[in-house]
Every structure is written in C-alpha cells, then in structure tokens.
Amino acid sequence: MDLRQRVESRVRAQFGRPRGLAGRVAGWIMAHRSSNRRRNSWAVSLLDVQPDDRVLEIGFGPGIAIAELGHIATEGYVCGVDHSAVMVRQAARRNAEGIRSGRIDLRLGSVEQLPAFEAPFDKILAVNALEFSGHALELLAELRKVLGGGGRIAIAFQPRGRGATDEAAGARGQAIVAALRDAGFSRVRLETLKLRPAVVCALGQKEATNGT
User: Fold this and answer.
1) How many domains does the chain have?
2) In a domain, 15, yes or no
3) Containing domain of residue 194, as a range?
4) What CATH number is given to the structural domain containing 133?
5) Entry pTM
C-alpha cells in the first residue's frame, strides 16, 4: 500500500467518529460531497418540518442538515447531538449565526446517553448515524422518549465502501422499518432515493395520547 492509499484508508476510517486532522478532512469531504448533500436534503424534506418545530438530529456530522433545518424551523429550535468533538466544532462554525440567536444548539454526546432536554421534540432525524447491531430497540426506545405525541422520526441510510449496493441499502431499510415497529412507532414506511448506491429512509410516528 503506497502513501496515497494509506492516507485515503486513514480518512475513510474517520467517517464513523472523526478525530484529529484526518477527522477534519473527513468532515470536509462529508460537507462537500454532492451525494451527501442531496441525501441530507432529501431526508429533511421527508420530515415535513414546520417553522415552529423542535427538531433533534442525531449524528449531525459537519452540520449540513442542521443548517437546512435551521432555515426551515425559523421560529423553532434545532438541537444536534454528535459523539465527535471535531464534528461539533465544524458544525458550530457552519451554523454560527443560528447558535448566536439561540435557535440552534449543538451538543457533544450520543444516542446511548442522551443529554437532558427541556421539552419533547416534534421531529427527529438521523442520517447514517445509528448502528442497529444488537440493541436497535434500546436506541429507538430512547429516541421515542424524547419525541412528543404525534412527532415523527426519520432514519436514513446509504451504504458506503465495500458492500455498498442498492440491495444492501434495501436490506438495511427493511431492518430499520421492523425495528421502528417493534419499538412502538406507527405509520411506518420506507422511502428510497435513487443515488449510487440508493438511499433509504424509514419514517415512523409516535401516536398522540392523553397527556402527550
């Protein structure tokens, strides 16, 4: 493996949890790759965010979707949680105006240990941010707790690297759909965006009940 291949391999390894210089490069790639931007914009559009919505994004990366959510929820509140300090810094620079106004709030953390929130959210978004191996129901149960009655969740996935095929996307999409149903979400459906490879997005809703 030559120097270029070693550098590329090191950068690819950073997409899961970006750190250091290689992590900053990975963040730059995520922010500027056209397919990533289309994927995030599409996932946001499926949530039907309203101007006064409270929206939570899990694993916001360089903050592309956060910025778009902030442009829509102009009278609401957009919160992001990411487990990479590098991504928090990059996203904070990209969303500096929204942060100064108090409409955008970016936090270092994870879905396994969510921070305390002042009120439930109307919408939750996760794009290539949730791993479902072994504890899908626990992760979704935590997210359902912070979603208000009638709120909607969107979980998008696009395979990358080895095994990145439309078939792999479809299989993951069906797995997410099943997990959402098992976790108690209703009106679950799967949408597909025809990129290379395909992007899938599973959507579900938390039914409104008395007191929620």
Assistant:
1) 1
2) no
3) 34-205
4) 3.40.50.150
5) 0.84
pLDDT, tens digit, 9 for 90 and up, residues 65-84: 999 999 999 999 999 999 88
Is 173 inside any structural domain?
Answer: yes
Domain membership of residue 90 (yes or no) is yes
Whether residue 159 is preceded by a cis peptide bond, meaning omega within 30 degrees of 0, is no
Q: Is residue 12 in a domain?
A: no
Q: What is the pLDDT of residues 41-52, one digit of tens each?
A: 999 999 999 999
